[in-house]
Structures are given as C-alpha cells and as structure tokens.
Amino acid sequence: LNYSEQFFLIGSRMFISGFILLIYSIFLLKKKKKILPTHIPLYLFLSIYNIYITNIYEIWGMNRMISSKTCIIYSLSPFISALICKIFLLEKLNKQKYYGLFFGFIGVMPILYNSSYVSKKDMFCISISDISIMLAVISSIVGWCILRIILTFKYSTIVPNGYSMIVGGVLTLINSYIYESWFPIPIFDLKKYTITIIITAMISNIICYNF
Predict the structure, then answer these.
(1) Which of 8, 41, 55, 144 could cross-link with 176 by S-S, CB 3.0 to 4.6 Å?
(2) Cβ proximity of 206 and 21 under 8 Å
(3) Could you read off the pLDDT of 134-163 as tens digits, one per residue?
(4) Rounded CA gap, 154 and 65, in Å?
(5) Average pLDDT over residues 29-38
C-alpha cells in the first residue's frame, strides 16, 4: 500500500494472477474444458463476491487498521461460514459441530475485544474499518460457497479461480480508474511495487487460493 494506490494494487495483482493461472491450466495442465453457458452466472458471481467485493472492502479497511487486527476479524470466518452454509447450501450441523463453533467463538471474543479499543470509552465502539473487514469476510465466504458449487461440475480449481481473478481484477481496475489518480499510472515506486506484487501474487493467489 506504500507503493501504489489501493484499488490498483488489488486489480493489477488479481488480473496478473488470473492470467498466469489460465496459461498454466491450458498449456501445462492441458485442461481446456469449456465453461457451459448455464455456468457463466456462477463464474460471474464468483468474480464479484470472491474477488471484487471481498478485496475492495478488505483493502479499504486494511488501509485504515493494522494487519493483525484484520486477521483477528477474519478468524470469525468459520462461524459465519457455518451459518451461511446452513442457510444456502442446506448443510446440517451435528451437536459436536455446534459445541465446537460455540467454544471457538467464545475463544475469539476476548482477542477481538482486547484489540478493538484504545481507551475504555471506545471499548464498545465498532469503526467503519471493522465493518468494512466484516463485509469482506462475509463476501469471501459467499464466494467460496459459489466456488464449491462450481467444483461439483468437475472443473479444475485453477480454472474458476483464474477466470474470476481476471474478471474481478478488471472490475477493480475500473474502480481504480474512477476513484484514483492515473497520471500517468497509480504507482509510487515501480521497483518495490513489482517485487511485492510478485511475492503476494505467488503466495496468496497462485498457492493459497488454489489450495
């Protein structure tokens, strides 16, 4: 975030990563399965939720808080995920899972509580940045649920991730062009930007997304 505008950072990283994944899938894995027309809406929703909305809210919130607090808020993902999967994917939770979620949630609360305020008068305040990260968490979970549905149609994990990163990246770059300065490009330090974008793309987009 020190080397480029926030939305441009996300958009360019996603677009580059998606391009690499699709090239890898087509030429190295030689998986050229066509996307059925009926599945295109799922791919679009995956792009919007898992890439565009998630990263827009995440990068905006992270730019206004420390990264460790962002990770703490993301630790609420299993609990929100269980609720969303129960509602939309009709998954059933047994007693052990309910107990696990309950005690896990209780365990997270003191950490979130201690990191969420500076003074006693602020201890029950929720900032806009907190809400932004929470929206990113929810959107991310919805995106992963959509990805799970897509994978039931026997697509390789790399294919939906690649397409969604390209489409989501383009949407984010459009967002960047509208709201950020492009004179000539929204990069403050090209060398450091290039190094960090390669590292984050490899770790986050190429490795973690697909695992």
Answers:
(1) 8
(2) yes
(3) 899 999 999 998 998 999 998 888 999 999
(4) 40
(5) 77
